[in-house]
Amino acid sequence: MTHPLRFGIWAAVHGSRAAHHDPDEPDDASWDRNRALVLEAEALGFDAVLVAQHTANPYDDERDQLEAWTACAALAALTRRIEIIAAIKPGLYHPVVLAKMALQIEHIARGRFALNLVNAWNRAEFERAGLPFPAHDDRYAYGAEWIGLVDRLMRGERVTQTGPHFQVTDYQLRPAGSFRPRPTIYLGGESEPARALAAEQADVWFINGQPLDDVAALIADVAGRPAANAPLRYGLSAFVIARETDAAAKDEHARLLALADRDAGLRADTRARTDAASVMFAKTDAAASRHVGTNGGTAAGLVGSYDTVAARIRAFHAAGIELFMLQFQPFEAEMRRFAEQVLPRVR
C-alpha cells in the first residue's frame, strides 16, 4: 500500500542547517522565529514539523538553542492541522514523566502529536551534566525498554514492569486515548540496533538523506522484518535547493558549500564530542565536502530544477518514502519557493 505523500520541515532549533556565515540566513533559534516559521509552514500546506531536541547548542554552546518539548506544547496550542513531532533522547527523561508530557501535548494538539526516538550522539550533552552516556548498542537496549514503557503508558494501560533499567509499579496515566490509541512513534538511526528497534516499536522510521538506491536498500532490509505496528512507514530527511534550472540550483549549492567551509572549526569541535559509533556521522564525514545540511542534507539529491526535484521526490515515494522532512536556506524564502513551485508538481 502506498501512503499519501507528505512534507514536513525541520524547526530552526539552533539556527542555520547548512552554513553559519550566510548573510541571507539569520543564525536565529528564537521562539519568535520558530513560531512564525511553523505557522507559515502550516499555511503553505506543509504537513509536519520536527523539533529536534538539544539542551545546549550542539555546534557552539555560546549560541541559542530552542527547547523542544516546551516549544511543542506551545505550537500545539497555536496550530490547527500540522503534525508536531518532538525528538526525545531517552537518557534525559524517565519514561513515566515523558509519557505524561506526550499525552498532555497530544491533548492540546487534539491528536496531532508524535515523538521521535533518537539515540543521542552528543556525549558532552550528557557527560557535562553528570549523566551516564553508555556505549552505542547499550543506549539502544536502554531505549528499547524505555519506549516499551512509554508506549504502554501513552495507551493508558496500568503498568507494572521490572526490567534492567526501570521498575514501574501500578502506574496509569490519564487522560489517554481521547483522539487515537496513542501518539505516533517515529524512530531515527540506521545501525543494526536502530533497524531492529524500528521494526519492533515504531510507526515510522526516519532515514537520513542519501541516494535513492541506498534508501531503497534500507527500506527493503527493515520491511523484511516482522513489524509490531505494521505496516511500518518511512520518512526521509533532505536539504532542498530548487531553482528554475539545474544549473542555477548547482550554483546555489556551490555557494552554500563555500560558506560551509568557513564552519570547519565548528564541525571539528562537534565531531570531537560525537560518539564514534554514530552511523550518521560516519556517513556524513565522508561526504562533507560535497553536501550541505544536517542528517544527510543534499546527499538525498533534491538539488536541481523544480521539475528535477519533483521527479526525484516521486522516485523516493515510489520506493516507499511517505514523509519528506525538509531543510532550506535561507529557510523562510526557500520554504515558500518549494511550496509555490515544487508542491504543485508533486501533488
TrEMBL record:
Domain of life of the native organism: Bacteria
Domain Luciferase-like: 6-322
InterPro entries per the UniProt record, alphabetical: Luciferase-like_dom, Luciferase-like_sf, SsuD_RutA_monooxygenase
Signal peptide residue numbers: none
SUPFAM superfamilies listed in its UniProt record: Bacterial luciferase-like (SSF51679)
Name of the protein in its database record: LLM class flavin-dependent oxidoreductase
Keywords from the named record: Flavoprotein, FMN, Monooxygenase, Oxidoreductase
Gene3D superfamilies: Luciferase-like domain (3.20.20.30)
